[in-house]
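Appendix C: a fully annotated inverse folding record. The material below is reproduced so that readers can follow the format used throughout the book. The structure is listed first as tokens, followed by the designed sequence.
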């Protein structure tokens, strides 16, 4: 059972999310809050697997909330669900530690799929956000980081939010082979997880994908 905590200041949006999440057999909402401050003070926080969070919140912003929650509970995964799709909000959220970034116009089915994807180790992004992350394929990194073609390929697949198993199927490698390349990518980029790797790669122009549309859901 996936335990979900919601942080959203719009009452109708919050109640809508809670209704369709609780309808699923494999997940339930353990707490629902209109701001980060109340969520951080709640005893429900430590029991959450995934947090569905807005950015534009009263008081502490969602991005500040991600940083605070990740410092206290790094094991909790956080999906941003917001109306903001500009570069500043997207990459500040990813740098803060968000595991996924969706638009509020996403359907209930898309949000449910994103929750399951994050629980399985993925990093779901809606198409317009994913395209930003994958915008300049094989550019020369300003900091001089050099990845092999295979490492670029693995990093590109990580940026799509895929699990190791899914990446292995896409590029015909074993999961152990994917883990080997991921360890090398983390070492070269000097990062500790997938979110940091993708954020670094986009920020420095290390990767991009020369496609007009990236399928997500």
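Designed amino acids, in order:
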């Amino acid at each position: 059972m996936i335990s979900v905590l919601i942080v959203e200041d719009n009452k109708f949006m919050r109640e809508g999310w809670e209704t369709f999440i609780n309808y699923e057999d494999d997940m339930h909402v353990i707490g629902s809050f209109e701001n980060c401050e109340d969520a951080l003070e709640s005893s429900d926080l430590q029991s959450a697997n995934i947090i569905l969070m807005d950015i534009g919140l009263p008081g502490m912003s969602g991005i500040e909330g991600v940083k605070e929650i990740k410092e206290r509970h790094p094991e909790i995964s956080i999906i941003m669900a917001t109306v903001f799709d500009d570069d500043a909000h997207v990459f500040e959220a990813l740098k803060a530690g968000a595991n996924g970034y969706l638009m509020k116009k996403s359907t209930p089915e898309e949000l449910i799929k994103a929750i399951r994807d994050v629980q399985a180790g993925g990093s779901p992004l809606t198409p317009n956000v994913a395209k930003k992350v994958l915008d300049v394929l094989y550019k020369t990194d300003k900091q001089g980081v050099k990845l092999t073609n295979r490492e670029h390929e693995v990093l590109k697949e990580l940026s799509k939010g895929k699990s190791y198993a899914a990446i292995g199927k896409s590029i015909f490698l074993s999961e152990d082979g994917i883990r080997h390349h991921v360890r090398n990518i983390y070492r070269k980029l000097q990062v500790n997880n997938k979110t940091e790797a993708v954020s670094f790669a986009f920020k420095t122009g290390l990767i991009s994908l020369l496609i007009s549309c990236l399928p997500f859901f």
